[in-house]
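Researcher: We plan to redesign the surface later, but first we want a full-length starting point. Tokens attached.
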């Protein structure tokens, strides 16, 4: 019982304690496609970690699952051309603790046939001491951070006409837009995930709007 209580208390700290920065952004691939013409609000989607990811006391092994749900789905029409797909990341399979509640944002979307590998744009691995060698914010990700101009945070790579709005949707869900066609994220589409603290200041407009209030 004592062990259970300790674990119960530890889980909420995963997304809050930034004394132990994540080992880079989390790179995952969708297990199944998500298409606004077929999905429903509330439907679950799953992605698979492409490499081991560590933050605080949570280790997400390569191949472990990340879980989220669709919070909005708007089709493209002539009268309302802006198709929208809102995705909310809710939990991850930490080693030994499946479906641990965890708030993460989609920072970049890369379609499977893209010729621009995400590894060339965003850092992945921590230094041996656990600090980040690169990243958008040195106070969170460690020294030697990349500048925003060297990353593609907030972009959709490999599919023209689409854009990503971080934390725009309900409950700060991330929303993919297209004014040319229905949003359809194919099986294998890569999502670059990170905590709120990893989002550059100029990409936190929707978060700040709520914090500031009317």
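Model: Full-length starting sequence:
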């Amino acid at each position: 019982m004592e062990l259970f209580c300790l674990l119960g208390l530890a889980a909420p700290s995963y997304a809050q304690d930034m004394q132990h920065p994540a080992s880079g952004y989390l790179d995952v691939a969708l297990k199944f496609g998500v298409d606004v013409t077929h999905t429903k609000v509330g439907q679950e989607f799953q992605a698979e970690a492409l490499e081991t990811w560590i933050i605080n006391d949570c280790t997400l092994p390569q191949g472990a699952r990340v879980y989220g749900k669709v919070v909005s789905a708007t089709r493209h029409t002539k009268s309302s051309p802006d198709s929208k797909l809102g995705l909310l990341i809710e939990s991850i399979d930490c080693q030994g603790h499946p479906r641990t509640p965890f708030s993460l944002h989609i920072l970049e979307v890369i379609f499977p046939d893209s010729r621009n590998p995400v590894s060339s744009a965003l850092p992945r691995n921590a230094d041996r001491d656990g600090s980040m060698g690169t990243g958008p914010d040195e106070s969170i990700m460690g020294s030697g951070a990349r500048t925003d101009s060297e990353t593609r945070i907030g972009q959709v790579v490999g599919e023209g006409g689409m854009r990503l709005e971080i934390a725009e949707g309900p409950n700060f869900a991330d929303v993919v837009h297209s004014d040319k066609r229905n949003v359809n994220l194919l099986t294998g589409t890569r999502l670059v995930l990170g905590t709120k603290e990893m989002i550059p200041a100029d990409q936190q407009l929707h978060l700040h709007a709520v914090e500031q209030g009317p």
